[in-house]
Amino acid sequence: QLQLVESGGGLVQPGGSLNLSCAGSGFTLNYYAIGWFRQAPGKEREGVSCISASGISGGSSNTIYADSVKGRFTISRDSVKNTVYLQMNNLKPEDTAVYYCAADGPTFITTPQTMCHIMKIYEYDYWGQGTQVTVSS
Predict the structure, then answer these.
(1) CA nearest to 34, candidates 90, 106, 88
(2) Closest to 88 measured CA to CA, from 28, 8, 18
(3) What distance lies between CA 84 and its chain's CA centroid?
(4) Of 85, 8, 4, 94, which is closest to residue 49 (Cα–Cα)?
(5) Bridge partners of 18?
(6) What is the mean pLDDT of each run of 10 residues along the chain (137 residues)?
(7) Spatial separation of the C-alpha atoms in residues 24 and 103, rounded to whole Å
């Protein structure tokens, strides 16, 4: 059974940091583009960041960030742990939301031009249950 499990959310003061984890079970995350999305109360789910599949070769991946988090958030992949991380620094109250990771794929053969996306949410096939991030003083 393919599963994604998020962790690492919590309550943090403005300017603080959190590191979210997205652990995969039942499949290899290297073969999937992994996206992080968030949904605040009363708002639509929005894309935050994504990392492209690294495929069988396990090469480097491309990343995309929403304008609102550029320079503050960093997405990365640990192939050994089968986990994707979202390091969030300089958090702001407007970052408060439930954060979800999702997988789109599989893609076994990749090139340096292989990309991911955060706009077409419906193309992501597998979703985690979400983790709450609250930024408040």
Answers:
(1) 106
(2) 18
(3) 7
(4) 85
(5) 88
(6) 95 98 95 97 96 89 97 96 98 98 94 91 95 97
(7) 9
What are the structure tokens assigned to 40, written together? 């605040």
Is residue 29 classed as helix, strand or coil in its secondary structure?
helix
Query: Residues near 105 by Cβ (< 8 Å), separated by ≥ 6?
Result: 31, 32, 33, 53, 125
| Secondary structure in 3-state letters for 47-107 | EEEEECCCCCCCCCCCEEECCCCCCCEEEEEECCCCEEEEEECCCCHHHCEEEEEEEECCC
> In the prediction, which pLDDT does 70 show?
98
Nearest to 69 by CA among 99, 89, 40: 89
The one-letter amino acid code at 43 reads K
